[in-house]
Write a structure and sequence with these properties.
The chain is an alpha+beta fold and 431 residues long. The protein has 16 helices and 8 strands.
Length: 431
């Protein structure tokens, strides 16, 4: 994963290079040019951060880079990671420290022993990893502990596993932070507010980029932020032949942290995680239930003919009430299990896939009274529960699954969907 530190091209550290490239075509050409290489790392004693830097693909060029990149892809087993399992691992557990959470997820997916200890040590190494002359005894000690923990006797393989984890630690955590800050998903953050804004290169020999001569020994700044172009592949994770090998895994982990372990194709996910205050969130389900009951009050005039909605699903008044109720109960049970540290029990509702004989009977005034009593109480339970949660758990929610904020928003939308499929009786045609 490319240099994940968010870099400001205006800072003194990165304005000193002799040449800056900020056009998309120039940046991609520079990244593909074998004459432009990462600033070389100065070797150090075995087991130190300086040694690690001089041994990983990130700071290598030519044949060593190709060989070490292959180690990351093959020997580090990056290619075998199942995206669905990775997403579930990322969704599980509450931890406000995103960096620890990211590394713990990858460590578990890679089968490393003691993922918690690995995560702590990787975070410590990250403090010094991108420094040209690292001087951090605590980080050196963390490298020494991590080497045997990687499960590889070959030092170069172990070093590149550590490098993978260190680079994932900062880049993926920053991607999540930016997605939350901007109210969008990881892909949107990668495009609009990338975690990596600049890369540095050195000219190993003379070359030319965009018609500009780059002499041997020149230092080059690639301004990724300025090079962004709508509709073109974001450059935060590099470009061929140095495209970050962990790009897809970083996006999956970020999605798991943001949205839980649900199917990423689930169209019910709010595109911006529905940002709102805790009080507003606590009011969403009661507001949805008010809408349900307002429509249900017209259903005593129903003539018994089912309704076919725009998605081709059949609904009746009883079926709509059944789905709203079951859905509230299902996610309530999930929330309480996750808060108790237990796995949520899978539901076995037939849901909207069936229309039962009970769904087809008349909807009476007594049915409306019972629906009002049942749903009003369920809405009150949800409102009180959401209001009582620690606010940080709304997004960093314990256990595997969607965030609690997402669950509440999902319930509010789906409840309206069920009853709107019937609508006010007398204003919608039946099939």
């Amino acid at each position: 994963m490319s240099d994940p530190r968010p870099q400001d091209p205006t800072s003194p550290e990165v304005t000193s290079p002799e040449l800056t490239f900020s056009r998309y075509e120039d940046v991609t050409a520079a990244l593909a040019d074998p004459a432009l290489v990462p600033p070389p790392a100065t070797p150090g004693p075995y087991g130190t951060v300086a040694w690690l830097r001089s041994t990983v693909a990130r700071f290598s060029a030519g044949e060593p880079h190709a060989r070490r990149r292959a180690l990351v892809l093959v020997l580090a087993d990056l290619e075998r990671l199942d995206p669905g399992e990775l997403r579930v691992l990322a969704a599980g557990g509450f931890d406000p420290d995103l960096r620890l959470r990211v590394v713990r997820t990858l460590a578990r997916a890679l089968g490393l022993a003691d993922p918690e200890a690995v995560a702590r040590d990787v975070k410590a190494v990250g403090r010094a990893y991108f420094e040209p002359a690292p001087d951090d005894p605590a980080a050196d000690a963390a490298v020494a502990r991590l080497l045997p923990a990687m499960g590889d006797e070959d030092p170069e393989t172990a070093a590149n596993r550590i490098g993978l984890l260190v680079q994932a630690c900062e880049a993926t955590a920053t991607l999540v932070e930016h997605a939350r800050r901007n109210g969008g998903g990881p892909a949107a953050a990668l495009r609009d507010d990338p975690p990596i804004r600049a890369m540095r290169r050195s000219a190993a020999r003379a070359t030319e980029i965009g018609g500009i001569a780059v002499p041997a020994g020149a230092r080059v700044l690639l301004d990724l932020d300025a090079a962004r172009e709508p509709g073109r592949e974001p450059l935060a994770f590099g470009a061929p032949p140095r495209l970050c090998p962990g790009r897809s895994q970083a996006l999956v982990i970020a999605e798991g942290i943001l949205y839980g372990s649900s199917d990423p194709a689930d169209t019910s996910r709010p595109p911006a995680e529905e940002p709102c205050s805790q009080a507003e969130l606590a009011a969403l389900i009661p507001q949805m239930i008010d809408h349900v009951l307002a429509l249900a009050a017209t259903w005593t005039a129903w003539d018994g003919r089912p309704f076919l909605n725009a998605d081709g699903r059949t609904y009746t008044p009883h079926k709509a009430i059944r789905r709203v109720t079951d859905h509230l109960l299902d996610h309530w049970a999930e929330l309480e299990a996750r808060l108790a540290g237990e796995p949520a029990t899978a539901d076995h509702w037939h849901a909207s896939n069936v229309t039962t004989p009970a769904d087809l009977v008349p909807f009476t005034v007594a049915d409306l009274d019972e629906a009002r009593s049942r749903l009003t109480r369920l809405g009150r339970i949800w409102s009180l529960r959401v209001a009582a949660l620690p606010e940080r758990q709304l997004d960093d929610s314990p256990g595997a699954g969607w965030s609690f904020r997402h669950i509440v928003c999902h319930l509010a939308r789906s409840g309206s969907y069920y009853v709107d499929s019937v609508g006010p009786i007398g204003q919608q045609g039946a099939v």
